[in-house]
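User: I'm designing a mutation panel for RING-type E3 ubiquitin transferase and want to avoid disrupting the core. Could you give me a predicted structure to guide residue selection? Please restate the sequence first so the numbering is unambiguous.

Assistant: Good idea. Sequence first, for numbering, then the predicted structure tokens:
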Amino acid sequence: MDCDALTLSTMTISSPGLLPTETLLDSLVHISNEVVSIEKLPFVQMRNVSSMIRRIKLLSSLFEEIQEAETPLPPSSTLCFTELLSVITRGKVLIQEIKDASTLWGLIQLEFISNQFYVLVKEMGRALDILPLRLLNITADIREQVDLLHKQAKRAELTIDPRELQRREMLLEVMANNMMQNKKNKGYMDFGKMEELLSSIGLRTISDYDIEISKLEIEAQNQAGTGGLVVVSNINNLISLVSYSKSMIFRDGENEESKKESCSYLYNKVNDSSSSSQSMSIPDEFRCPISLDLMRDPVIVSSGHTYDRNSIAQWINSGHHTCPKSGQRLIHTALIPNYALKSLVQQWCYDNNVPLNEPNSSVSEEKSNKKNSNDGAIDHISANKAGADAVKMTAEFLVGKLATGSADTQRQAAYELRLLAKTGMDNRRIIAEVGAIPFLVTLLGSHDPRIQEHAVTAMFNLSIYDNNKVLLMSAGAVDKIVQVLEQGRTMEARENAAATIFSLSMLDDCKVQIGARPRAVPALVLLLKEGTPIGKRDAATALFNLAVYNPNKSIIVSSGAVDVLIELLMDDKASITDDALSVLALLLGCSQGLKEIRNSRELVPLLIDLLRFGSVKGKENSITLLLGLCKEETEVVARRLLANPRSVPSLQSLAAHGSLRARRKADALLRLLNRCCSQPHHSL
């Protein structure tokens, strides 16, 4: 793979200028590790996705070895790495888009998406054309593997999984039959075949079906302006198909046991309510999803869904611990009153002369001329929308109490928002949309310990939704959160403030803004000293996230984090050894951090012990620290290692049986020690 003039002339530079070598390698290692750490693969394009991850994992070993060697790179390799950065970045985006998009629509677009992977692999091969492997300071194993990867990329062909093709053909056949039935008779569909198809692509629970329907609705909106009427019609056909299949499959109770119980219970309740129905029509949003009767006392369960109190209480008291509508496990059984919905129900009852205090008198909207047995099936789509509307009304009501209520009312409202934001991305989005964030930020300064604790915990739950991170930063929440982190009125409030900073720092822009706050990092270090084991872990993970941004490393070191982290390595009760090692390994990358770590007399013996008894991640970070110290002060650290009889056997064991990354670094450290021993004044 020597540099070739013709290849160079045909290369496409993806960026207007080349990054500095150090920055380029940092970016490559970071983006490669993000791709390699992807765990749950999508149900479509699984072969192409896993193949792309495998290629990038191999390249990440090359990048890390070159980064550790710290030798100048030939110009052509810089050009190659710039191209590879573009390819890997686009590969990551493509994989994430497949995971986030509708699985069924991914099946329809099978060839189009497969071709995108094919293009990326070919670009990877063209980039490797100009990589001068013989000029790079890398091991023979890595050189051989990269050379093999290059040959495979050059020979690569368009890959489409035959099993996915078969599923797509089955789907198209069912779609065609569905359209014919819509035009003729809607009575027959092979639901066994449909359930088998949907199960093969990961749709196995009611929640899976709801998520797929939501993704299809988003896709329909995206395609409305560009995809044309045919495309939108096909997506709507899919939505209809999945919705109808869901109601029929789960109504028949042919799935897992919890779904059988839910659907059986719902079916019995529907029959009970139908037998006592009246002629008046109840709005769908006022109906209990269990009984289909009017919700006279609506309450919210932990999944975010609203039910009539009597119906959901009977469900829970009969031994069930899941949400009847979603199948999601209830994390608690508290029933939160839905005051906003209850007010609307009372108004409707007054306008229509319906008695509010007769829970046994139910009304129904069934038409007298409907005799088909399918008429009793539940409309899950309208129920979902009704649930979202109920969450919105509840959130608006609670925000109003935050704004104008007494301290007791604010405490209760903040607590209910905290619970409501704990489950479901839709809940978190809706709560932010109705304007809760500014009021929660204000309540962080409350003198009431519980109000402060509920407010900061609600903000942590809201921050899990990425768009809310931006809203929280815009609302000036960071300074208030840091204040709670420093001087929170309860330890739980301080811990949840640290967890909120960790969540916010997932975004790169937030890392910069939080690091620029002079009190943020010292407050995290203080919690690292004083907190409970949970608080220490929250603080350590937040510091790790912030340290990914290089300028923050010196701030963390100057705040005294190194000594505290080393002390935590010796604290068995803290149980955050791996988290502390991860932060120390990052701080090794700045001169101040290296100096502080080098000055510790206790660290090297601790790291040697961790090479033997630590976790896989702990061993990797321990060897990273030892190797970094050895490169800076080879003779001093080598003497301390060689003086410990456990060090060399531990390194040899790690070089033979450790993870790929640990083996590579253990080999490098053993070579350094061997070189040190071979010098005359170090002969053994």
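For picking mutation sites, this is relevant: The chain has 34 helices and three strands. Residues 1-17, 181-188, 252-279, 358-383 have pLDDT under 50 and may be disordered.
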